[in-house]
Amino acid sequence: MEDLFGADGSASQFMDHAVTLVMTYAPKVVLAIVTLIIGMWLINRFVAILDKKLGQKDPTLNKFLCGLINALLKVLLLISVASMVGIATTSFIAVIGAAGLAVGLALQGSLANFAGGVLILIFKPFKVGDTIEAQGFLGAVKEISILYTIIDTFDNRRIVIPNGQLANASLTNVSIYDTRRCDMTFGIGYGDDIDKAKQVIKQCLEEDERVLPEPAPRIAVGSLGDSSVNIIVRPWTKTDDLWPVYWDMHEKIKKAFDREGISIPFPQRDVHLYKEE
Fold it and tell me: Residues in domain Mechanosensitive ion channel MscS (predicted)?
């Protein structure tokens, strides 16, 4: 033991120094741990209440804002806990700043997504609940988070798109207006009566309550095809009724044409056989 600690009582000095350190820092460490636990609980509780209150007023903003506030408050809590233990706050902030710079350089794409999320919230090209078409996907916006926007498609798929791509590319907001025009085209034979066909189409539109009287539906010859006269049909409907009207009208007008003897041409090929003599 004398060889290990020396003969001058260095072991006793070491123990005294250890006890002094424990007596000095143990209360600080315990207090810091308690503060960290309580602080995390309070932050989570506050963010949950904010999410609930803000979600009732602005579902588009709440997920993004709550995530940002949650991250900032936890960073401030960690700085406070570090200062309680005895770590110099200025040094700690400098370390965080240097680490933040390194992480920022490594995660430039994530920072671009964060900036894209801020731009989406400021300019609001869409909001939660809107139906949009972007990056080759069509669906309803479920959530706008700090880095990503979540879209649920109509065939029950969940698509996650980075905010940076949404902010820097074109997109279509399908549901921003209450009404939409339903574009359809029906072909009839060159030997059929155009006026009769237009009257049949008009009657089908008038019988459907989902077709709006104003603006009035447009029915006109759109083009002369290789084998058909193409009639364009442009009724207006409520946005939610667009596709049901589109599908139903194709069935109703086809049946009406059959009853009235109006033909719908289809591609066909004539084969002529010649007998060699």
Answer: 110-175
Please report the sign of the dihedral spanned by the C-alpha atoms of residue 17, residue 23, residue 26, residue 32: negative
Measured CA distances, 78 to 43, 66, 73 (Å) = 12, 18, 9
pLDDT tier at 7 (50, 70, 90 boundaries)?
A: very low
Contacts of residue 160, defined as CB under 8 A and 6 or more positions apart, other chains included, come to 148, 149, 150, 151
β-bridge mates for residue 266, sequence order: none
Predicted structure pTM score: 0.60
Q: CA 231, CA 143: separation in Å to the nearest integer?
A: 41
Q: How far apart are CA 128 and CA 140, in angstroms?
A: 8
Tokens of 145: 């988070």
Contact assessment for residue 228 and residue 190, using Cβ atoms and an 8 Å cutoff: yes
- Return d(Cα 129, Cα 238) in angstroms, integer: 16
Nearest to 232 by CA among 244, 242, 222: 222
Q: Are 46 and 53 in contact (CB under 8 A)?
A: no
Tokens (6 digits) for 160:
């996650």
Question: Which phi and psi (to 5°) does residue 136 adopt?
Answer: 85, 10
Peptide bond preceding 125 in cis form (omega within 30 of 0): no
Six token digits for residue 164: 């940076």
pLDDT digits (tens, 9 = 90+) for 214-236: 999 999 999 998 889 999 999 99
For 218-257, b where at least 16 C-beta lie within 10 A, e where not — what string? ebeebeeeeebbebebbbbbeeebbeebeeebeebbeebb
How confident is the model over 231-249, as a mean pLDDT?
94
DSSP H or E segment with residue 132: strand 131-134
